[in-house]
Amino acid sequence: MLRARAFAEPLLAAETLDTSENTLAHADGVVAVLDLIGGGAELKVCTYLVYACEHLNRPRELITKAFGADLAAVALETTKLVQLQRQTRVKAAQVRLERASGADSGSSSGMRATPTELEASQHENIRKMLLAFSRDLRVVLLRLASRLQTLRYIAAAKIEPDPALASESLHVFAPLANRLGIWPIKWEIEDLAFRFLEPQTYKDIARQLDEKRIERESHVEQVRQQLQQALRAQGIQAEVQGRPKHIYSIVKKMRGKALDFDHVFDLRALRVVVPQIEDCYRVLAYAHAHYSPLPEEFDDYIGKPKPNGYQSLHTVIRDAQGRAFELQIRTQGMHEHAEHGVAAHWAYKEAGSKGYQGVHADSDYDAKIAVLRQLLAWQSDVESERRQAATQPLFDDAIYVLTPHAAIVELPKGATALDFAYTVHTDLGHRCRGARVDGAMVALNTPLQNGQTVEIIASKDGGPSRDWLNPEQGYLVSHRAKSKVRAWFNAQAVHSTIQRGRELLDKWLQREGKTALNLDDLASRIGYDDAASLCEALGKDEITLRTVEQLLHPTQAMQAPDEVQLRKARHSPARAPQGSVLVVGMDSLLTQLARCCKPAPPDDIRGYITRGKGVGVHRADCPDYAMLAQRHPGRVIEVQWNGIGAKGDAATHYAVDVAIEAQDRQGLLRDISDAFASQKINVIGVQTQSVKGVAWMTFTVEVTDASRVQRVMAAMQDVAGVRSVRRR
């Protein structure tokens, strides 16, 4: 330790921390705190190395050479965590100032023990960082000791503390010390932080304690001596000690149980330390027999230890004058753990087979895991308080990096700079073109590490690349980022669809001489909200231009049903094959397969009586048929397939349209044609159109039944670049 201090002294003697405390004096104070909790020599060496790191050009190389790679790794990890926490507090302070600038100049919110929403968010970020850096417990212990020393200095120097630092100490560091069983640090951090956050309440309780201190201490000492002598007379080698009560714990009890100061039972407290567990229960029996116990205040933490391993018997008794005492009864081993907690096993190899907190450990690794479980349980404690599920992914599943403004961003392990950009803002991700990590340019698919600062280089406009969705190239890990990229391309596809539909509609309106027609009115008449929705439906082939034509050129009123003239079938390319469709209840009627949906057996079909063209046969899901049936329900007639079943050359063939949307590329048409050929499907017509790299194709094929179409469509999905395949 002396060698480490000599190594650091020239670097630190003239330096100061953000609190204005001399850096070397701070390191000496941290060492004193580690002495208090039983920290080992290596941990004290790391203290000086941590603060020396920031003043060395090649800290890892120099510290490794002088003190070994293990201590160099601890020092560098702790230094990184110190810098992250400092940057987080600075950022939080800036946000508070920005919010305060909008408030009245004469108002002041002051500090308080209850955190604001902003502070709670920052506390959660600090907890996550502590977990992320806790692979070596020494890093956490160094941060706890450093925070206590900072609070001690602020109190001694009588300077105004940073509100974020005080709140963070009370709501993050003190609970962590409690979970790890390091109560001396917990109690002192709580009292000092509470003193800064609620100075008036602290002074009131301190004054009431001080007013009765002499009387209380005299009485406690009298009872202590009596109890120790009585226990030894019973053959119990007990050491009875007075136990100081901490102000913050008094306030918590008063607020939690709605008590006033005079009704806090454990203002007078004694601790009894005995050799064996059976002695604990003998002391308890004696105390309950010779004093008046309060049954509701009894807790057996020996039979059922606290989650952090704490063991002791707690009871409250009253003496003959009715004054209440809290009595804690424990063995020497329990007392050692209660005073030092995990600090007693700060080096995992020192824990050996003893493990930690009674957990049996057959190896150094098992002892380490036993300690790390307490850190994860600490996070679960916080979640339970917030009434959330206690299950949280292990810290190995997440990393924590910084924006250039020191805001903490949580990412999944293995995340890249591109994931980071999308997490910060969707638009930043779309426009991302490069990244700097810790000031150095990196590829967008470079995995990030804990504590790195990431700066995104973005263009003014533009969008993502389809390569970003290729898992083999490793650009994105986050599911959220992937969904944002897919959503962008889906939006572009919708835009292309609308543009395609608009072009079809414009050409048709030009041919009809209706270019002055208001498209929004037209869309409304057809049943769409606006022109864009109508054009999208046309672009997707959900409706056809025939629907628009029927709206603009309504047919004359139909004759009454009993006057309709139905003719026999005539030869026509669109006519239903002879005998293939039966009009229920009537024979020898002209039937026509609708061109808008091209039905084929075994499709569910509907009939619609046209004017002069017999019965139009539509698929039941045809949008044109739905519109016609809605306007003229009296023309709907029941039809069904008839006599389907011939095979080979005798089988009837039906023309069916298959619509394909794909990313346009060279050879696309050839590959799709080959896919049809491999399914032995005859293509009798093709229509293609390409808009901004998106190809829209309609293939008219001959099939004997519609089930063949489904197999063909499944085969099309395997063609590179194909996005969707459907029947028109």
From TrEMBL:
GO terms for biological process: guanosine tetraphosphate metabolic process; nucleobase-containing small molecule interconversion; response to starvation. It holds the Pfam family ACT_4. GO terms for cellular component: plasma membrane. Keywords: Hydrolase. Residues 98-118 are annotated as: Disordered. Residues 397-458 form the TGS domain. The keyword Cell inner membrane does not apply. Residues 657-728 form the ACT domain. The keyword Hydrolase applies. GO terms for molecular function: GTP diphosphokinase activity; guanosine-3',5'-bis(diphosphate) 3'-diphosphatase activity. In eubacteria ppGpp (guanosine 3'-diphosphate 5'-diphosphate) is a mediator of the stringent response that coordinates a variety of cellular activities in response to changes in nutritional abundance. Belongs to the relA/spoT family. This is GTP pyrophosphokinase. It comes from Serpentinimonas raichei.
